[in-house]
Amino acid sequence: MKTLNTIKAMREALSPYRQANKRIALVPTMGNLHAGHLSLVEEALKQADIVVTTIFVNPMQFGVNEDLDSYPRTLDADKQKLASAGNHFLLTPSVTEVYPNGMNQTTVHVPGCTECLCGEKRPGHFDGVSTVVTKLFNMIQPDVAVFGKKDYQQLTTIRKMVVDLCFPIEIIGVETGREADDLAMSSRNGYLSGPERTKAPALYQALNQVRSTLLAGETSYSKMLNTAQQSLDEAGFIADYLEIRDADTLETVSKNSARLVILGAAFMGKTRLIDNLTVELNLSKV
Ligand code: PAF
Predict the structure, then answer these.
(1) Is the overall model pTM greater than 0.90, yes or no?
(2) Minimal CA–CA distance to 135: which of 182, 93, 196?
């Protein structure tokens, strides 16, 4: 695996593959890689001839009181994991390489799906994500880009952005990697203390409880969400949001929506965890 840290070197390295019409996949990450990230690389290897993973802790997507400074940076271990996974190129650009004009720069705002949920709780977050992903798309010019479904709102936003801005890039979503107790894999799980880690799967369990109740035919969303909220409270979570939305647009659901997503964000101590589960309803039976 080759590691590069400038856009120029990256473009030069990819040029022969592009000329040979090789299919190029991008896996954008912020590092501190776990098995969930490696499943993105695995999918990218199925989708393309050449896989480029990027590691960049993007300052633009962190709020002022968020964990930008303490975000885990584990480059040496990440490189070993990527090399063993068969990744071809790693791009690790500096902040000035990505933001040559500082933060006073053009931004990408994707309207509609970014105002709710994490967008409401973390103002500016998705502008930071859309802007940096646009930059990564322009740097690498991939044929396909792979993202995790754990960041469901992020994936929805990227899918819309690609259509809105006519990027000729196929977007692939990969199922959330889970620990043995179903906790969604996340770099932020490392912030949890031992007792917090033991309680953390309650977020998945609360979402799964809503999913099972929906599939059993319950139609009162508020009743289901209140019950889930109580389970979160009992486990020691402070919920940020718990919602049922349209799985394609993230709009609030109507009784005719068949493809739903249940999304939750909640604090366990100081750590904010997110998770989601999709549900396909057979409306003719409901
Ligand atoms: O999901 C992430 O790790 C980040 O939001 C991304 C897509 C790499 C953009 O910084």
Answers:
(1) yes
(2) 93
